[in-house]
Design brief:
The complex is a heterodimer of chains A (156) and B (258). Chain A has 156 residues and is mostly helical. Helix content of chain A is 71%, strand content 11%. The termini of chain B are far apart. Classes of the chains: A mainly alpha (156), B alpha+beta (258).
Chain lengths: 156, 258
């Protein structure tokens, strides 16, 4: 219980910090563009909520399981989920938006964000590689600890 | 192993920060682009009508705009292309102003002789497809497209040949008076001649006449054309009209006189 308390406290602090960084701040920014493009802001509110939920959940969960194999497993899971999330949120890199400026006059905006998506995925995959290496390191250290140390013996 | 993990951790952290900074500055910069439009103008050169739209693009952001391309296509109500135009600006550097003039040319002579001749006689709605393509910060290609319709005023709208009156002169000839009228709904000041050929039931031309006209924009032109007709004036079937203006020539337009 004593061991758990600092972890829980750390998880709460991290959760609150991430909540502010990944939910409150982006939602504020999205609300700023709601007058300009209401439909866009509604769509992106959902995306921001989902992203914040994923990031906060994994931040809290990894903090609670720190020092165990689950911490690394959760980090790997987070990296994989974020890759899928980026692809879905950016619609495969091609974003299309239709705006009704005047009745009957429609502006269509298409943004090709494939290079940006590639950057996001590349960095996320580097994070995945780091988590895999951390896991291998954790397991090897654990195995090393389990090997019985040879007893010192006297030379004849 | 620990060293590798640590350096990978640093690399990932630094890359996330760089990407975040790039994202924030790119979004901020995109909102600093200020396009403005000058006064559109229309000029005629020979039989070509050119509409010009000056665009001033101020790139107040941190990143360059490249491959800035404006394409416009004007179509009639059936989707037939009347004119298409494209203007390319290779670079608009960060912090720089670019003045672009997008010209849309219409060869009226060519339009009159093609299947677009209905634009000479009927008011219509023209469909305009405009597209702006650009690459922002060298990694974000964008396309903004807009469809709109605009009214087209025909230069010879409501062209009418009224009831003809025939005055026999002798056994072989008669004088035919044909009331001719039209409204100039276009923005062109029209000046020129209309030539009429009177055709009988055997497809023979039995008389010719012409009239000059001067029709400023949004005006109505009315005149009576007098033509000396040979042969049996009861056999008159139709008139063939030929239009001559500084912008275009068109004919024959066949109109019934019965």
């Amino acid at each position: 219980m004593r061991k758990m308390l600092p972890r829980v406290a750390k998880a709460i602090v991290k959760g609150l910090l991430y909540f502010f960084l990944f939910y409150a701040l982006p939602m504020f920014l999205v609300s700023q563009v709601s007058g300009f493009a209401p439909r866009l802001s509604t769509e992106y509110e959902q995306t921001v909520v989902l992203f914040a939920a994923v990031v906060i959940f994994f931040a809290v969960a990894t903090e609670l399981t720190s020092g165990t194999i689950y911490q690394h497993a959760l980090n790997i899971g987070k990296a994989l989920i974020l890759v899928i999330f980026f692809v879905v949120a950016l619609n495969g890199g091609i974003m299309k938006l239709d705006l009704d400026i005047i009745e009957g006059q429609r502006i269509s905006i298409v943004a090709d964000l494939r290079v940006y998506l590639m950057m996001l995925i590349t960095i996320d995959l580097l994070g995945l590689a780091k988590s895999v290496m951390q896991m291998v390191n954790f397991l090897s250290e654990k195995t090393e600890r389990q090997i019985p140390q040879p007893l010192p013996h006297e030379n004849p | 192993m620990k060293q590798a993990v640590r350096s990978l951790g640093w690399a990932v952290g630094i890359l996330w920060i760089i990407l975040l900074l790039f994202t924030v500055t790119a979004v901020y910069s995109a909102f600093q682009i200020r396009p403005s439009f000058g006064e559109p103008s229309v000029a005629t050169s020979g039989s070509t009508l050119t509409a010009s739209l000056p665009i001033i693009l101020y790139n107040g952001g941190f990143y360059d705009i490249s491959k800035f391309n404006i394409t416009t296509r004007v179509m009639d109500y059936r989707g037939a292309t009347i004119t298409r135009s494209s203007t390319l600006v290779p670079y608009v550097l960060a912090g720089a102003n670019a003045t672009i003039t997008h010209n849309l040319s219409l060869a009226i002579e060519q339009a009159a002789t093609s299947n677009l001749f209905h634009l000479l006689f009927s008011d219509s709605e023209l469909e305009v497809e405009a597209a702006v393509r650009l690459t922002y910060a060298r990694v974000f290609p964008f396309e903004i497209s807009l469809n709109l319709s605009m009214p087209w005023g025909a230069p010879f709208a409501n062209l009418t040949l009224g009831n003809i009156s025939i005055t026999p002169l002798n056994l072989t000839h008669a004088r035919v008076r044909i009331p001719l009228s039209f409204e100039n709904h276009s923005f062109l000041a029209l000046e020129g001649t209309i030539q009429l050929e009177i055709v009988d039931y055997t497809n023979h031309i039995v008389g010719r006449g012409s009239t000059g006209f001067n029709a400023p924009p949004d005006s109505r032109f009315e005149t009576d054309v007098e033509i000396l007709v040979s042969g049996g004036h009861n056999d008159i079937r139709e008139a063939h009209l030929y239009f001559q203006t500084p912008f275009f020539s068109y004919g024959p337009l066949v109109m019934s006189l019965v």
